[in-house]
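Throughout our pipeline, every protein is held as a single compact record rather than as scattered files. Nothing more is needed to write down the fold, since each code stands for a local backbone conformation. For reference, a complete record is included directly beneath this paragraph.
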Amino acid sequence: MIDIHCHLLHGIDDGPKEIDTSIRLCEMAMENGIEKIIATPHLAKLNDIDAFIELRDFKLDELRKEIKKRDMMIQIYAGAEVFVGDDIFYSGPLNKAAMNGSRYLLIEFDFFGVGFTTVLKYVEEIMKMDLIPIIAHPERYSFFQENYERVDFLLDKGVLLQMNAGSLASMGSRVEFDLAFEMALKNAASFIGTDAHSIRNRPNDLLKMLRCFPPNISQRGLNQMLNISPEAVLKNEPISTMDRRPLRKRW
């Protein structure tokens, strides 16, 4: 399996502080069938992108050397989770933060004080850069929880979605689970990621979470979200889509 959203690198964001914890997360990933990880540390200030990339690549190189020294069978790729706010309009190109040098950009928004109309403008600005936005954990945003049709609207525009495994495993709120479950049933999400930050509080024990998923999520759909679509990102290839159906909020 491939994890496209993981805060694996040490000393760069709210993920691991020490490289030993990064190594432990790699070990946990291997124990849970994850063979490839895109490291996605938070990029919070778009005007500091060059400094961020330099630090990220330094930390990534350190981790890769440790992995090689220990003969660990796991591959780590460069990425970022880009916090998008109003500075997107004067930040310049964000291609350097795309995943593994592809056109795919993992993005997140403020959980408070931003509305769907504003998010739509952010997404359109990213697309003008010839990038394909992947919204991280959409099930956690209130503007989607309140109106599922907004999810369909963005999907129709070419936006992609990455759900957190913990949401489908009922580790978050009920409204997060409801939206994540509906997206999984209707083939709306292209990816499942761990969004791992640490060994204890938010680990990447993906197999344990998979066992807690609702049983009526198809194996074909899981394979698409955990293997096929992430591999396409790494190769910078188009994402093949399954038959998507409109989302409907269940009362």
Summary: Residues 41 and 80 are 5 Å apart (CA to CA).
